[in-house]
Backbone:
């Protein structure tokens, strides 16, 4: 295999002569010329490389709520991009054309970390998001972009499945200001059979974020009919979140639509999301949202004390904002978990593709 790439971190040689990637729990062991399961980390000239450093599937300016992050500078704009490949094999992947791509030639957008940070500044973006595919697999690129962003006062966001080892996790989240972590289900059977991964490392990432970092994070669970949408599983997950993460971590229940290798599975009925939201609130979670459906109540942020609608949204458009710059309810003064400005951003529902030279 002849290819160019950026020297990767997080690997070591093992006794049989192979190199083991230490980035995620897959622990891929590679002979010369082989790629890891993510497809973008490979062995070349007796070292590990990242083949997608500086190469993207495209750049777009989105509302921050689309990540989804509802408690991280609401209404602001975020410059979003991803690369190719993934370290999970989700049969229901809704970005499969990017995350499952083995075609490096489709990564036509090339940009250095400085160029990305400068573009975010030029377009008045509050943050840059590593998304569309999992930034864990392009960690070196994402961390370098984060450094360039922070030098310009730009925040950074990781949209991730949270499937990574302890050392890279520590390095990676030291560079992130916010994250949305996919908690895809709450059974090992689901993770193993439908994603080719394991549940426990994801739970460890969530606990790490809560107790070892200052990263603001929210959780998303895509509810798939017949697979992870039972009352029992949703209740167990919410109880775990309450016990290990606390009541103020926002959770988004999103609707599945048939895609990739699960085309025969029906779309999630809105009633399933409403039921999950009620279960979560009954378990004590304060901020519970619905996604991929039009549901203004499930888009709106409420005060946990006086129940005032603090941030009224219609899809990604903010119609009312009652949060102070210090993150308190303007009606009763209760602290609202998250990071806020004195006024909401006004980016709205736009999606603006951009080119970076």
Residues:
């Amino acid at each position: 295999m002849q290819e160019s790439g950026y020297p990767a971190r997080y690997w070591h040689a093992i006794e049989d002569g192979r190199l083991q990637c230490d980035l995620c729990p897959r622990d891929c062991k590679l002979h010369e010329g082989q790629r890891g399961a993510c497809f973008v980390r490979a062995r070349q000239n007796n070292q590990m490389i990242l083949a997608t450093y500086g190469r993207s599937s495209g750049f777009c300016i989105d509302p921050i709520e689309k990540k989804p992050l509802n408690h991280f500078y609401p209404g602001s704009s975020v410059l979003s991009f991803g690369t190719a490949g993934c370290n999970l094999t989700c049969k229901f992947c809704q970005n499969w054309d990017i995350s499952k791509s083995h075609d490096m030639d489709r990564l036509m957008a090339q940009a250095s970390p400085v160029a990305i940070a400068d573009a975010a500044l030029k377009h008045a973006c509050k943050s840059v998001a590593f998304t569309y595919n999992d930034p864990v697999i392009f960690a070196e690129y994402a961390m370098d972009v984060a450094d360039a962003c922070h030098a310009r006062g730009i925040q950074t966001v990781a949209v991730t499945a949270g499937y990574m080892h302890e050392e890279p996790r520590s390095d990676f989240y030291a560079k992130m200001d916010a994250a949305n972590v996919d908690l895809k289900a709450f059974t090992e059977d689901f993770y193993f059979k439908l994603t080719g991964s394991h549940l426990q490392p994801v739970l460890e990432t969530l606990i790490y974020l809560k107790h070892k970092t200052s990263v603001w994070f929210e959780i998303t669970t895509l509810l798939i009919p017949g697979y992870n949408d039972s009352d029992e599983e949703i209740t167990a997950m919410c109880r775990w979140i309450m016990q290990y993460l606390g009541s103020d971590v926002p959770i988004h229940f999103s609707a599945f639509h048939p895609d990739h290798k699960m085309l025969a599975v029906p779309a999630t009925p809105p009633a399933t999301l409403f039921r999950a939201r009620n279960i979560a609130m009954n378990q004590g979670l304060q901020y519970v949202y619905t996604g991929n459906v039009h549901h203004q109540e499930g888009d709106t942020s409420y005060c946990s004390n006086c129940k005032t609608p603090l941030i009224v949204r219609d899809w990604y458009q903010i119609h009312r904002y009652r949060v102070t710059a210090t993150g308190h309810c303007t009606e009763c003064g209760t602290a609202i978990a998250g990071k806020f400005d004195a006024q909401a951003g006004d980016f709205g529902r736009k999606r603006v593709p951009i080119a970076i030279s």
